[in-house]
What does this fold into?
Amino acid sequence: MLSGEHDEKNAILSIHAGSGGVDAQDWAEMLLRMYLRWADQHRFRTQIYDYSEGEEAGIKSATVEIEGRFAYGYLRSEAGTHRLIRLSPFDAAHRRQTSFAKVELMPDIENTIEISIRPEDIEVDTYRSTGAGGQHVNKTDSAVRMRHIPSGIVVTCQNERSQIQNREVALKLLKARLFEMEQKKHDEEAARLKGEHVQADFGTQIRSVIVHPYNIAKDHRTNHETSDTTAYLAGNVDPFIHAYLQEQASGVASPAAVAED
It folds into this structure.
């Protein structure tokens, strides 16, 4: 099942809050915590490269590298939009709220694939580190924001000790994003030639977690589900990963699917 070209590599996982306001930012942080716990259970090392806090709670986005054999191969099942339905803890009336967060996944392809980036195609800004774990918060402009002008891709890194280190990590993230973009183009073209419809936009949830009026976590591609949402959010993601990999191996699982509950 884990026979893909990059399955054995480390994974670079990014989470972005979607629609749903503060609840979506809280949901993004819940997902980050879930994957960090999953990595810890597998004794994988983790390093947070970027962490953007929400205004009231949660996070706007975060990028973390998960280092371990087959980390990318396992976690590629998680790429897509994740939905949460619950009674909002941020609503005074405690109403039911639907929130979305997007998970992006890239293999760490540094030193394994040549991605050519011309220096004149990169725009670099520096700013003061903010967020969790920044030892240089409000002291030095060590954080780096790097923009690839031709593609419009923007990456940031703020949690290394120096601006030079942050630049190196940002370049690494940029290469991974460019590789992901080219890989997606290739996959979409292959699907088009096969006559398949590929829907990979943000509005397509691959998995839903519902904690009101009942408890269920369900993958809409494999139909695998569990009523133990507490264990799932605590990092017990393996059953969903294995179900996805098994169906991918048999050619059944679709890249993405939507199911309304």
